[in-house]
Amino acid sequence: MKHIVSYLAPYRASIALEMVIKILGTLAELLLPWMLQVILDDLVPEKRLNAILLWGGGMVVCAAAGLVFNIIANRMSTGISRQVTRQIRFDLFRRVLRLSGAQVDEFTTPSLISRLTSDTYHVHEMIDRMQRMAVRAPIMLLGGVAMTLFLDPVLACVLVLPLPLMVAGVWALSRQGIRLYTATQTAVDGMVRRAQESMAGIRVIQALSKIDYETGRFDQANRETAQREYRAGLLMNATNPLINAILNAGLTGVVVVGALRVNAGASQPGAIIAFLSYFTMILNALMMVSRIFVMLSKGIASGRRVAEVLQAPDDMLVSPIPASPDHAHIAFEGVSFSYGKAEKDLYNISFSLQAGQTLGIIGPTGCGKSTLLRLLLRAYDPDAGRILIHGRNLLSIPSQELHKMFGVVFQNDFLFDGTLTDNIDFGRDLERDALCRAAQNAQAEFISTRPGGLDGRIAARGADLSGGQKQRVLLARAMAGSPEILILDDSSSALDYKTDAALRRALAHEFSGVTKVIVAQRVSAIRHADCILVLDEGSVIGQGRHEELMQSCPAYRAIAEAQMGEVD
Ligand SMILES: Nc1ncnc2c1ncn2[C@@H]1O[C@H](COP(=O)(O)OP(=O)(O)OP(=O)(O)O)[C@@H](O)[C@H]1O
Known about the structure:
Blueprint lengths: L1 H4 L6 H32 L5 H49 L3 H7 L1 H43 L1 H8 L2 H38 L1 H6 L3 H27 L1 H25 L5 H42 L19 E8 L8 E8 L4 E5 L6 H8 L7 E6 L2 E2 L5 H6 L1 E4 L8 E2 H6 L6 H10 L15 E2 L8 H14 L4 E5 L7 H14 L4 E5 L11 E6 L2 E6 L1 H7 L1 H9 L6
Parallel strand pairs: 3-10, 3-11, 6-9, 9-10
Antiparallel strand pairs: 1-2, 1-4, 4-5, 7-8, 11-12
Helix pairs in contact: 2-3, 2-5, 2-11, 3-5, 5-6, 5-7, 5-11, 6-10, 7-9, 7-10, 7-11, 10-11, 15-16, 18-19
């Protein structure tokens, strides 16, 4: 939480000024019942009209000052909380994008989304309300008590007696509240995950008539969230009635004792009226305190979740490892890796590629093909062995430098709502020529037939493109930045054979100097590779050129023969 509080540091001066204004506004309000008491008890009985008008005018000025100062202070607090939350969200988003693959797995994507959205919203509410109420409530409370003590100390004691009981009750409820709101946010994570999965698979859900099934699954997550929110709300809603009950007991005592004192001539009716006004102020202040505790419970629970991500250690540190005299462009040396650190997902992988060579990777589903690519991109670090680029250990290459080397197409890669130019350029400010060439090499000639061509828009996730068209736009994106290493993960599976063959020709001719790592299901996509890795359950069961593997690797031969008609 300290981390979140540190975001307020740049606004110290503004917050101090805002608090002074708030204090002035609250003090002006506090004077009103006392002025009323003076008018009723001192001036009216003596019929001093000028003095009555003067004190009445004073009351109007105080009321106006209270209004204006409070409005100014509230505007300032809203401005500060807006800027602080914007900065927290910005830093959080930037941190999320820099998390390692293992950290994303640990936090989970839906949880990161809810931390970025609903948690930062709760933090915003906490910062905003705390500035508004945290000054006003104590001043009203303590000022109200002080004024009642000044007006009639005996009556004030009757009112103040239950306060410690109230503070203890609110504190105990709030502690429990933080726990319950943390549980609620975890349920929100689950609901976001369900919604995200359903949105991503909306077409399949509709096609397979699974709308009721998915609605049921979402309803379950929604109910869980609502239930936890209800439990937290139930608890925190107990604070207001608790305060009311205790204060009403105090009020009854005040009215009874006050009536007795007026009858005995120890107090005056104006003082009792002022007393009741202060009582209302104290009541409002306590209500505010209870709201502050609800807000704090939510805000602290959310702030901790946000801080967890902001303070997540940098997994991908750059180590000063000296480069080895190695002429290979890419080398894997005895690389092993496991996601869960139990069973190996990749075991003892070794290969080396010269600049301009092509590595093909093939194997059954789940054998570790994409994992190998993730290690090459340093989304995860190997548990054993090392990965070298130009003889430099991947661990020693700063991520900015490393990632500039690659052009990548992942499985299920994403396109966003924008022009095709935006999607291919991807914020790199590439020359128009480079974009056109990339589109041509990616066989994305369909672009010229769309309205607007490269400047035409596509929908989010490329929803208005066919599977093959999406893949070609993604290929164009990967090819456009003149990468030195091109990574293609099953990126031509939706292309027809003719287009696939044209793509391979473009890769061979236009990218002859680029080192290529191609994961494919089709043997035809990798048969001309300089080296092919055949993976099975994370281990290499065949390694060599197509012709060698046809002789030496039965699994490869079986795949190739099964696709025989397809191999060109
Ligand atoms: N983020 C992850 N956390 C834990 N396990 C994972 C993760 N990603 C993949 N795995 C597991 O690692 C193994 C290899 O997965 P990988 O995605 O590399 O397979 P693949 O060969 O690319 O499969 P496909 O051909 O279906 O894409 C699988 O058993 C998979 O369940």
